[in-house]
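Retry 2 of 3 after timeout on previous attempt. Resubmitting structure tokens to design endpoint.
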């Protein structure tokens, strides 16, 4: 996990070190999140889904989706499903679940008790203002899949040799995302870092999001053991 934080340059180069939190602490109405994090101007949620590929059941992989390069920030970079809360979301956990369904066709039914969070600055596309954002991330441990062929979802993986996803795709392409793929921890660790103004390579990630995904790998493995916070069911 990255530990270097650039506080001396542009605020847009800053992000906090992702840290573990208890998911139950943020399982509260959205308007109460400001009480926990009074300095934060905007919240986002992310849902992290792990799986084992049928051909390599010992290798844990995470599902990432590729952002569209035209209208979105950090275009052509890879990330987990996620986004900003909507008014109808009961909690930030519901925000993560809704975004996951919209972007990956995976509806989380429960999440691990260990969650994570990270803050960073972001330039608003509409106003141009620089705002301090906080992402709250949740690890999916039980889910429904709403696509027609669930088996194909776990078959699209990253080819380091070809530098592109290989295998059948089953996730619908949207105006926000171009592709989806499953990545191992080593592949995520080797992802190039997004640099504003420079075309990203075939597999690039924003530093803060890369660090959060790497922490999620660690927390997912811990969730399989004992002495961890209880999971949280998502009631629709």
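Retry 2 succeeded. Sequence:
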């Amino acid at each position: 996990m990255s530990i270097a934080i650039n506080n001396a340059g542009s605020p847009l180069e800053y992000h906090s070190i992702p840290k573990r939190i208890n998911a139950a602490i943020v399982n509260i109405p959205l308007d109460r999140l400001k009480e926990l994090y009074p300095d934060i101007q905007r919240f986002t949620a992310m849902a992290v889904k792990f799986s084992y590929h049928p051909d390599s059941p010992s290798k844990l992989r995470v599902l990432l989706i590729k952002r569209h390069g035209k209208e979105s920030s950090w275009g052509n970079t890879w990330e987990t499903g996620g986004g900003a809360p909507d008014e109808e979301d009961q909690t930030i956990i519901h925000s993560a679940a809704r975004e996951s369904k919209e972007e990956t066709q995976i509806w989380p039914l429960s999440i691990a008790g260990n969650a994570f969070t990270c803050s960073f600055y972001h330039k608003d596309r509409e106003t141009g203002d620089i705002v301090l954002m906080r992402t709250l991330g949740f690890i999916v441990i039980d889910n429904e899949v709403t696509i027609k062929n669930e088996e194909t979802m776990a078959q699209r993986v990253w080819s380091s040799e070809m530098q592109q996803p290989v295998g059948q795709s089953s996730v619908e392409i949207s105006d926000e995302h171009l592709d989806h793929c499953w990545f191992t921890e080593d592949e995520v660790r080797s992802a190039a870092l997004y640099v504003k103004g420079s075309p990203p390579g075939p597999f690039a990630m924003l530093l803060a999001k890369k660090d959060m995904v790497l922490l999620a790998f660690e927390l997912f493995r811990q969730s399989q053991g004992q002495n961890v916070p209880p999971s949280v069911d998502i009631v629709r």
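Attempt log closed. Confidence is low (pLDDT under 50) at residues 1-9.
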